[in-house]
Design a protein that fits this description.
Blueprint (H helix, E strand, L loop, with lengths): L3 E9 L1 E2 L11 E2 L2 H21 L3 E10 L7 H11 L3 E11 L7 H6 L4 E7 L3 H6 L6 H14 L2 E8 L6 H11 L5 E6 L7 H7 L8 H17 L3 E4 L2 E3 L6 H7 L4 E4 L4 E4 L2 E4 L4 H7 L8 E4 L2 H12 L6 E2 H8 L3 H4 L1 H7 L3 E4 L2 E4 L7 H6 L4
Parallel strand pairs: 1-4, 1-11, 2-3, 4-5, 5-6, 6-7, 7-8
Antiparallel strand pairs: 8-10, 9-10, 12-13, 13-14, 15-17, 16-17
Helix pairs in contact: 1-2, 1-10, 6-8
C-alpha cells in the first residue's frame, strides 16, 4: 500500500530549434523518433510504477524540451500510463511554447490543470535575437487561450537578455499579468557551451551590464509585488494559492521520480540520473526504470543541499528540522560559517533565511556551508 508521497517529472526532450541561451538536453523534433521515445517512456513509467509502488504521486510536471510539440493523442497515452501509479494529484503541469498550436481545452480534458508558458520577453526584437519562434502578439494570444481553459497559468520571463532595458523588462511582466497567477523571473545565466555565450565571447552579442540586469530584476520584482504576487523563491512569484507545488519539492528536498532521457530522481538518500542520450535511454529502458546512474548523498552533502535549497525560499529552512534530520546542532556545528555570512541572514521563529536584499547572493552564501 502506498504510504509515501512523491512528485513525478517527465522529460520530453524535443524542440523545433535550440534557443541561444539554453543548455537543457534537447533534440530536434522528428515524428518517428518522437514515437519511439514515447514508447520507451511509457515502458519506463509502467516499470517505475511497479518499482515505486509504495509511493503516492501527488504532483506531475511534464517538462522539456518542448512538451507542447507532442500530439494530444501521444500525451494522452503517456498520462494514461501514469494511472499505474497510486495517485492523489494536487497539480499537473505541462510546459509549453507560445509558438506551438496549443490546445489548452484538450489539456484540461486530460487532467492537466497548470501550464507554464516560455514567454521570456514581450519585445519582438529581443525574441528574434534569442531565437524564439514566437512574437509578443503570439505570446499574449497563447496566454489568453490558456487562461480561458486552465485554472492555473504561469509565465517564464528572463531578465538581462541582449538588447533589453529595465523598462522593457517591466513592460514584459506588465503584459503577462492579466493572464497569470504565477511568474518565474530568471536573471540570465549562460552556460559557457551555449551558442549565446560563444557569441558574447566573440563580441557578436552584447548583454546588459551587471548593474543594469540587477536593476531590471529588482524593478520587475517590485512590479510583481505591487500586483499581489509574493516572492516565495528567489526567481518565483505567485498570487495566493498559485505556488508551484511540484517545484517546491525540489527546494524542500522531498522525493521526486524523474522519467525520460536526462531526468533526475531523488528518493531516500539517493539521486538517480537517466542518460542524456536518446539512443542509450531507449535501449536501456527495457530494464524497467531506465539506464540509470545512482549516487548516495552523504550526511555533510545532504546538510549543504538542505541549506543551499532552503535559502532559495523566502521562508528559509527550519533549524530544528535540520537538527532532527541529521542529528546535529546546526548553530553549534556551523558556527564558523554563520560568523562568515550571518550578516546576510535573518533568524525568525526558528527559521534561517536570506535577507531579501541578499537574494541574488544566495549562491555565494550557500557555498560558505560547503565542506
Amino acid at each position: 500500500m502506498a504510504d509515501k508521497r512523491a512528485g513525478l517529472y517527465l522529460h520530453i526532450p524535443f524542440c523545433d530549434g535550440k534557443c541561444g541561451y539554453c543548455d537543457f538536453y534537447s533534440v530536434a523534433a522528428d515524428t518517428d523518433v518522437m514515437q519511439k521515445y514515447c514508447d520507451a517512456l511509457v515502458s519506463e513509467i509502467k516499470g517505475a510504477a511497479r518499482l515505486f509502488c509504495n509511493y503516492t504521486i501527488d504532483t506531475i510536471y511534464i517538462g522539456g524540451g518542448t512538451p507542447s510539440l507532442l500530439p494530444i493523442g501521444t500525451l494522452a497515452r503517456i498520462l494514461d500510463a501514469i494511472s499505474d501509479f497510486s495517485l492523489d494529484l494536487k497539480e499537473v503541469t505541462v510546459e509549453a511554447n507560445p509558438a506551438d498550436h496549443l490546445d489548452p481545452k484538450s489539456y484540461a480534458r486530460l487532467g492537466i490543470d497548470r501550464i507554464s508558458l516560455g514567454v521570456q520577453s514581450l519585445s519582438d526584437p529581443v525574441l528574434k535575437a534569442i531565437g524564439r519562434r514566437h512574437d509578443a502578439r503570439t505570446a499574449i494570444a497563447a496566454l489568453e487561450r490558456c487562461a480561458e481553459h486552465l485554472p492555473r497559468v504561469s509565465a517564464d520571463l528572463i531578465v538581462g537578455l541582449p538588447g533589453t532595458t529595465p523598462a522593457e523588462d517591466v513592460a514584459s511582466v506588465q503584459g503577462v499579468l492579466p493572464y497569470v497567477g504565477h511568474v518565474s523571473q530568471y536573471l540570465l545565466k549562460l552556460d559557457p557551451a551555449s551558442p549565446m555565450a560563444k557569441a558574447v565571447a566573440a563580441g557578436k552579442t552584447v548583454l546588459p551590464d551587471d548593474d543594469a540586469a540587477v536593476d531590471a530584476y529588482e524593478r520587475v520584482a517590485e512590479e510583481l509585488r505591487q500586483n499581489g504576487f509574493a516572492r516565495y523563491e528567489i526567481s518565483n512569484f505567485a498570487r495566493e494559492g498559485e505556488q508551484s507545488l511540484h517545484n517546491l519539492k525540489y527546494w524542500k528536498r522531498l522525493p521526486y521520480i524523474g522519467l525520460g532521457a536526462a531526468a533526475h530522481s531523488f528518493i531516500g538518500d539517493t539521486r538517480y540520473e537517466n542518460p542524456a542520450d536518446l539512443t542509450r535511454y531507449c535501449s536501456g529502458v527495457s530494464v524497467g526504470h531506465g539506464n540509470v546512474r545512482g549516487q548516495t548523498i552523504g550526511k555533510e552533502e545532504a546538510v549543504f543541499e538542505t541549506v543551499m535549497l532552503g535559502l532559495r525560499l523566502s521562508e528559509g529552512f527550519s533549524i530544528e528540522e535540520v537538527n532532527r534530520a541529521f542529528d546535529i546542532d546546526f548553530l553549534r556545528d556551523y558556527a564558523e560559517e554563520l560568523r562568515e555570512v550571518g550578516f546576510m541572514l535573518r533568524s525568525d521563529n526558528g527559521r534561517l533565511r536570506l535577507k531579501e536584499e541578499c537574494f541574488l547572493l544566495e549562491s555565494a552564501v550557500a557555498r560558505a556551508f560547503l565542506r
